[in-house]
Design brief:
globular; five-stranded parallel beta sheet; about 210 residues; 8 helices
């Protein structure tokens, strides 16, 4: 099963997901947690180029192509082989981040980014996508309060950009209702962990 974790900056998705992995492992599931952009050495090198704060001249299409290239490498080298072994693969961000950030917020268009990613993914979609929904004002305030977290090039975008990311994610959840589950990420941490855990367990029961 392939699960993707999506949401705006500071939604808490990464910390929540780490706790959910522990719960699934306690249940005896074999889980691999990975992330995009990255997840393999080559894709992590592409990540460094994309998120480098000095790369202010990066063209939006170049940015989208680099995310797609990192995605391709991640799928080929990690996600597809592991899914053949019957593992639960959970990826912190995937295709929908490209649709929301490059397609929506950068204005390149959802269908344009979908088509571009077709080369990378060969039409491979997640079984389940958890959308950690939160007002970006709350998310960005959390990041500012959490000094241990590094600020990247996309965190530095204006609030309109982040509002557009959120709205695009919500529109994607409407467009792909069969795989999206929306979680209220403004709730207390432990509650969000439980909501995410139950959504994955529910899907697992359907898949088995
Ligand atoms: P990261 O530090 O992992 O952020 P977060 O903790 O919020 O997930 O950086 C990933 C950044 O890349 C994040 O700002 C979202 C962005 N992104 C895209 O714009 N398009 C994509 O396809 C992906 C996977 C990420």
């Amino acid at each position: 099963m392939f699960v993707t974790i999506e949401g705006p900056e500071g939604s808490g998705k990464s910390s929540v997901t780490k706790e959910v992995v522990k719960l699934l492992e306690k249940d005896g599931e074999q889980v691999v947690l990975t992330r995009e952009p990255g997840g393999t050495p080559i894709a992590e090198q592409i990540r460094e180029v994309i998120l480098n704060k000095e790369n202010t001249a990066m063209d939006p299409v170049t940015e989208a192509l680099l995310y797609a290239a990192a995605r391709r490498q991640h799928l080929k080298e990690k996600v597809w082989p592991l899914s053949k072994e019957g593992k639960i693969i959970i990826s912190d961000r995937f295709l929908d981040s490209s649709l929301a950030y490059q397609g929506g917020a950068r204005g390149l268009g959802i269908d344009y980014i979908l088509e571009m990613n077709q080369f990378a993914t060969e039409g491979y979609y997640p079984d389940l996508t958890l959308l950690f929904d939160i007002d970006p004002r709350i998310g960005l305030a959390r990041i500012a309060a959490n000094k241990g977290r590094e600020v990247n090039r996309l965190d530095l975008e204006k609030i309109d950009f982040h509002d557009s990311v959120r709205q695009t994610f919500l529109s994607l959840a409407k467009r792909f209702p069969e795989r999206f589950v929306i979680l209220d990420a403004s709730k207390p941490f432990d509650e969000v962990v439980q909501d995410a855990y139950h959504a994955i367990k529910h899907k697992l029961a359907q898949c088995k």
